[in-house]
TrEMBL record, chains A, B, C, D:
SUPFAM superfamilies: Glyceraldehyde-3-phosphate dehydrogenase-like, C-terminal domain, NAD(P)-binding Rossmann-fold domains. Residues 150-282 form the GFO/IDH/MocA-like oxidoreductase domain. Residues 12-130 form the Gfo/Idh/MocA-like oxidoreductase N-terminal domain. This is Gfo/Idh/MocA family oxidoreductase. Keywords: Oxidoreductase. Pfam families: GFO_IDH_MocA (PF01408), GFO_IDH_MocA_C3 (PF22725). The keyword Oxidoreductase applies. It comes from Nocardioides nanhaiensis.
Length: 391, 391, 391, 391
């Protein structure tokens, strides 16, 4: 099977899933052409969901040409070149592997999957597909936050010297209230984990990306503050973590501390990063996503500079609005779509790859293992993902 | 001619103009259905511009079914029900009056027009059209910033008591550099005025809206810090203001101070408002448009509360993203489009009306007049706009 | 009579007044030696107040060797070399003039006096005394806020280019509540003016100092939001302003807007300054007095830098605490005392001089005059204070 | 030997040590009477230091009646009732134990001592002295920061519900530069530990105090980023930590994460605390020590409230300055002195006691032990300090 990219036609896109993430990704495909004229054109071919009525309605609202209820059928369509998987994590593996086999470029919303084993399998499939010119990417959308992309650039340019400490957190508060009800997200069998998988995955990807380095060992702790909640069938044990902590050793020699929580009263979507280097530091808070704090040691009267990352010269912003006209959270998905389309057109490996998604899963697994062993340091396997998988 | 709203078909929209504002409005029409499912459906019928090639390209990129070069021809189309005017101010009057006469609902980007006389004529046309069920609105998009809409609600509910002082500014810095070149925006004949018309118009509308009150008298000052700039034909006088100041008396008895500038180094899009009442205060900065500062005198340990205006219960946010997932500047146009569609569907007068746009123009004119007379206080005519126009 | 500075003995200090300002100045004299070892030693000789018992108690508490009830008697003492006047403004003139005549160095808390005429008389007395080596200074303590002193330095060094706009305010809220009682501060006959004299005087001095420029013309407005309050003798008219606004033209060509208020709910001691120049800007808020915002246009990724002004190299801080160990409001009086002592020892004219205090009074008077004439622009007399006084 | 408090005479104070901490404590004793009139009067009797000349000079500058070079001799003086130990940690034990034996009330600057064993010995001596009415306290001055004292009150009152998570850090940057020279503070034998003992001790005391709870187990990590520095005798190994991390389990069930560093570029004195409870949260940053962030879940439009902790009704502030007139870092020592004097006068056990200082030392020791064992969780001995010591 050969690469599915057409030469002159728009790339047909199918999104699988139409709830929160399906809506966010639909928004991206609807808008990518307006802000990234140089990206290859994409066409919102079909939105896939289980419920025919709701899927049809969502498709109409979100700008899709068609609605469908079977993702398998979509893989057979010639007018679909990109499959964008926005379903819950448990189905990621099967859809992704099948789509790659069918020659479709695949974007998978994070986490890559719910288990390391599945992620390894997906990574192998992606590597194989890449040999056929079929591309894949995992949806860590915060890679595209312009302020974080700028942070990455500044680190790469050595503007803050050698990175030593990263202090990171992702704090939300939607489970603060102990009377908030039980949901599938609070059961281990359906959700895999709690704040760890949902929030720490973003943080770990950022830490590895910004430092261009990998986590090699972790100390971890998990905790559930509200141990039981009321469900449809009465009182029920919460079997995932409300909060998680990790101290990570990075291959570069830096150390990163991570704290994530869903019971941090007053924090709505508080992904914060402080990156300390030998010659400066950076700071970021997702609730103010257009801003990057930059401190450079050099020069008189040093101090933390609030850079409003809305200039045309800043990453991803060459074709949006004038300076100071801030962007929203949803724009990061539009940027992600543009990057994916651009990589496909250039026949270039997109990033973050499935292998990068797998690397995050392995860190999460190590945190869980450490947490089960009094927090003692656990090594993160660093072998090549494909080799490791084949062993 | 009867009202143009169809009963079952989507409302066909034409946008006139395809540069900065045309892009922003196109974005709104492309996305309004996704976030406001209860709004009547709209269809991006046609984008109008002078240059055939560039208009066609923009139409394709921004999601329009067609491109056209004549706004007059668009007024004749049966599939166009809404005309959205995004051209420079000097053409607003003619297009708007013709479109209303043709039975099209009209949205005009602010300022309503470049002169009070034209604005009066437009306001009369709008009033007449309203008797035929044809609606009109002026595009003060900041009315829709959720934090500012919340500010309006809190004032209305008496949460900060009786408003006494408003301290407002709109500071930008794109003309800071004296070597920045001459443009049509810096010539009085083409631009009408400088920071005053461009920036103070937004501020005055906000002040009047939030306080539910009108400016009755003003002291004004205008200043041009860089008196000459290099143009295509050599050195040329700048004939509009770089900055403007006004102290406004409001019909409610409150006093508002206003400062606007295009040479405020370091401020990119800094519309800031502080509203002081007898029982509390509010504060806002457009560069952090998802936040509203709320201070209430009551209760122990008072202080300025940073409210992240991203809750489902906040204005305009019932169908966007979860709490803490911030919105961008462009979202305010989507909200504006939803409001306009909703008003059309309900056959209800949209706000801000042309009369409200005219009221802002009259305040701007009074500021200019005061500035020409050593800043002495100038009354703002408060008569009914239609009556005033007919006199 | 010759200069009173001893060569080897500590300078004996008398403070006149022991309430709020007397306490703040006492604190300064008690601590100046600890933080400014290079300043000539000062001795807390005597605290003067009307009430013998309360003055004695205050003297003991604040570290004074003695208490006294007559300021006249203090002027006769040989062990008093410095007279520091902390009484209400109405008595400043008589004490200062007598003290200067008696050969005492005089520090007068701001405002210099309640009237321009008295201030002129004091300025003449100071000029005459200076010819005898007797020094005088007015207590605009905010000149010594390290962040503001740094602001002055940066402007002087041209770091933000030519200053164009200054946006200044001093907002407090202690009169927000309309049931707050009548006091002498709200009567014109005792207080002179309201927010204008109390708060705008500080702001005007800062504006003139930071820009090294003088106000040459003003548009002013005054307003009293709560027109009557309950006093001991029943309901009584408030005869001073609750808030004041001014737009000032500076001799340098810059324009400064000023807003002051005592009814700005939620602002406790909010003196804020934004200084916009052709190459950068500065910002300051007294409620965070250890910080200066610095924006410089040059360089990549510009932004407002929060400089924590606590480094040994920053103004006034060579002998305080390590970086980041913040100072309080009271420290500014200690710095003021050190400056005054240093000037005396060096037989150098201290600043701000009485002439500088008079200049501020003249601007305040012009604001009042403008406010009485619909806000029309009023010139501020710029003649030499001594000449002007003699004319 | 009986209690040394005189009935009518001021309490005579001796401070041992005259560098950084001696200066800060001197400042407190010099000013405590001015701000705490109800505290028993104190007299600055004698300042003790090794170098006769420098001590004499410091004594004169800091307001001491006398200087001395032998702390032993001071213990014999009848006019000394309070001994305040500001020497390096290694001498704390001997001076404190001797002073207590001599019937002097003892204030020891933190850390209580450099070792757990010494701290246990001191705690036993303090308990014995207490039976004689002789009091002792350890100088965790941040207990007195008004904003932190308010935080403690709010937690105690249940305003944020049950505390679940504390996120704490103390970040400085004075060792960021790898060329900063070797000092005694970077050698284990002289300094005990690095950032851990210096900075984490403050944080741990705060965490335990604010939550009214004790750390029962910790995971720890220490790291030295700059392993060698240039000393007087050439290149030398740094044998203490530059940074430390700990995850602490509290007896209340809460979990606290702690990160401290001396290489956090851009943070000067950044002690920050975020306390998350079941009904709200608090936040604090020492670089803005007059502010407390308070979030309460209840009520509409929740958000983080910036409380300026400068009201007369706030802890410690009944007799300072008007609202908004901010205090400096040094004021916390004045408050500490007032608390100690008040406890002595009332014959009441001061807090933080030596036992509380010991408790902090035990947590630090557990962090070190955990760090030596791959970060595995180490229990903190919770036994009664005296009993534990005797075992």
């Amino acid at each position: 099977m050969s690469m599915s990219t057409p030469t002159s036609q728009p790339l047909g896109v199918a999104v699988i899933g139409h709830s929160f993430m399906g809506k966010a990704h639909s928004n991206a495909w609807r808008n990518v052409g307006a802000f990234y004229p140089e990206a290859p054109p994409a066409r919102q071919a079909v939105l896939v969901g289980r419920d025919p009525l709701r899927t049809k309605e969502a498709a109409a609202r979100y700008g899709w040409a068609e609605a469908a209820t079977s993702w398998e059928s979509v893989l057979e369509r010639d007018d679909v070149h990109v499959v964008d998987i926005c379903t819950p994590g448990e189905s990621h593996h099967d859809i992704a592997v099948a789509a790659l086999a069918a020659g479709k470029h695949v974007l998978v919303e994070k986490p890559l999957s719910n288990t390391v084993a599945e992620s390894e399998s997906m990574t192998r499939a992606a590597a194989e597909a890449a040999t056929r010119g079929v591309h894949s990417m995992v949806g860590f959308n915060y890679r595209r936050v312009p302020a974080l992309a700028l942070a990455r650039q500044l680190v790469e340019q050595g503007r803050i010297g050698e990175v030593r400490q990263v202090r990171a957190s992702y704090l939300q508060d939607w489970l603060t209230d102990p009377t908030a009800p039980m949901t599938w997200r609070l059961r281990r069998e359906s959700a895999g984990s709690g704040a760890l998988g949902d929030l720490a995955s973003h943080v770990i990807d950022q830490v590895q990306h910004i430092t261009a380095s990998t986590v090699t060992g972790v100390n971890g702790r998990l905790h559930t503050f509200v141990a039981e909640r009321d469900g449809d069938a009465g009182r029920e044990a919460v079997t995932v973590d409300d909060a998680a902590w990790a101290t990570c050793v990075l291959s570069s020699g830096a150390i990163a501390s991570i704290e994530v929580s869903r019971v941090a009263a007053g924090r709505k979507n508080g992904l914060s990063l402080e990156v300390f280097g030998s010659e400066g530091s950076l700071s970021f808070d997702l609730e103010r996503l257009n801003e990057l704090g930059v401190h450079e040691e050099h020069g008189e009267h040093a101090g933390l500079r609030r850079v409003l990352v809305t200039e045309e010269s800043h990453p991803y912003l060459q074709a949006w609005w004038p300076p100071g006209h801030v962007l929203g959270w949803d724009a990061t998905f539009t940027m992600q779509a543009a990057d994916f389309l651009g990589a496909i057109a250039a026949d270039r490996a997109p990033s973050p790859s499935f292998a990068e998604g797998l690397a995050v899963q392995r860190v999460l697994a190590a945190v869980e293992q450490s947490a089960r062993h009094l927090g003692t340091c656990v090594d993160v396997p660093a072998e090549d993902p494909l080799e490791g998988g084949r062993a």
